[in-house]
Amino acid sequence: MINFYAHGGSGNHGCEAIVRSSVKLLHQPVTLFSTHMDQDIQYGLDQICTVCSDTDTPLTRGSREWFLSAIETKLTGRIDKQIAYRKKELFKQIHSGDLYFSIGGDNYCYPGTEVLAAERNILQRRGAKVVLWGCSVEPKLLEKPEIAKDIAAYDLITARETLSYEALKQVNPNTVLVADPAFTLERKDLPLPDGWMDGNMVGINASPLILQSGKNGQLVYAAYQKMISDLLEATDCGVALIPHVVWKENDDREPLSRLYQEFRSSGRVILLNDCNCLELKGYIARCRLFVGARTHATIAAYSTCVPTLVLGYSVKSRGIAKDLFGTEENYVLPVQKLDDKEALSTAFRWLCDHENEIRTHLEKYMPAYTQKALIGESAVRSL
């Protein structure tokens, strides 16, 4: 049996895209353990897999479970008992030989890796095989002994770009290089909204996370303002503001709504409503150019051969661009280094100047590149 876990809910449509595309790639029934079942049902994942709760139940201070887990942590430094108590649903029915896929592709890029290590350890002790699926990992993290030890224990790792792959392979030889499964995601074309200029729209995605990742969030926002202003002045293109994550605590619609209010009087800027990842890909695919902060929004663009500029903040953005184009230069603007509000406009002008050659390159390169996602399925069958 195949089980997916470490999934935070489909309000992040990148997470949704990973589930949808992976279910189709694997050709087997899948059970999805989710921390936000309601989101997955809202966007229809219950129609393609079995959705189960992966709720985190905090331990009551002073309870038997609390004491036992505290003793383990004190003596060993591990939190396995704590996680086993807190995540009972995930560990309720494990059979020897079951496959568990940790599908939060960049979870190792953020705090909380000790929880991932505990989950993997518990699953393996109970007889399951564990796969770190379609991941990116900052190479410097692997210099930490506790993370390297955890990574080394996975039964299989599929890395979605070369920068992560080369680092992970040094730690775990059971690592294969793939394309992110979402490159294979299908698209669904909804009717175009009023104001959409067919064949002449620039899709733009921004996120609260990208603002927080910069040296100065106000400067990053000002860079978006400047780019849109210059675009409207220098071209006849329309602008489609496209949210890709709508989590309450991390909602792309917040910065995009602010930008929409500032430029709506131009009559050339529209703000798309939330919809599922297939429908979002349908809109992105019909853009002429795309500028995106969310990785899976840019994957939707790349995979439909839309010339794309990534406002990136981690190894995944740089690694994917390097694999597609041989370099990240001009294709990824590192938000951490953005110290001039003109920088995004300058990078976008380069994209415009090279639009045709980029599109031609993607049209030639993408079919073979997308097939690399199938390598993951072959590796799973060999477990």
Features of the shown structure:
six-stranded parallel sheet; 383 residues; 16 helices; seven-stranded parallel sheet; alpha/beta; Rossmann fold
Q: Can you name the CATH architecture of the largest domain?
A: 3-Layer(aba) Sandwich
Oligomer: single chain
Write the CATH fold name of the largest domain. Rossmann fold
Span from first to last CA? 13 Å
Please state the CA-atom Rg, rounded to the nearest Å.
21 Å
Number of domains: 2
Beta-strand fraction estimate: 15-25%
Question: Roughly what percent helix?
Answer: 40-55%
Query: What's the level 1 CATH class of the largest domain?
Result: Alpha Beta
DSSP strand count: 15
Poorly predicted regions = none
* Strand order in space, largest sheet: 3-2-1-4-5-6-7
> What is the overall shape?
globular
Give a description of the structure.
This protein has two domains: 2-185 and 371-381, Rossmann fold (3-Layer(aba) Sandwich); 201-367, 3-Layer(aba) Sandwich (Rossmann fold). 45% of the residues lie in helices and 16% in strands. It has helices at residues 13-26, 37-42, 64-76, 80-86, 113-125, 145-152, 162-171, 208-213, 217-234, 253-263, 277-285, 295-303, 315-325, 343-353, 355-371, 373-381, and strands at residues 2-7, 30-34, 50-53, 99-102, 129-135, 156-159, 175-177, 201-204, 238-241, 246-247, 250-251, 269-271, 289-292, 308-312, 332-334. A seven-stranded parallel sheet has the order 3-2-1-4-5-6-7, with helices on both faces. Strand 1 (2-7), helix 1 and strand 2 form a beta-alpha-beta unit. Helix 3 (64-76) runs antiparallel to helix 4 (80-86), helix 4 crosses helix 5 and helix 9 packs across helix 14. The chain has 16 helices and 15 strands. It has 383 residues and is α/β, with parallel strands linked by helices. It is globular and about 65 Å long. The two termini are 13 Å apart.
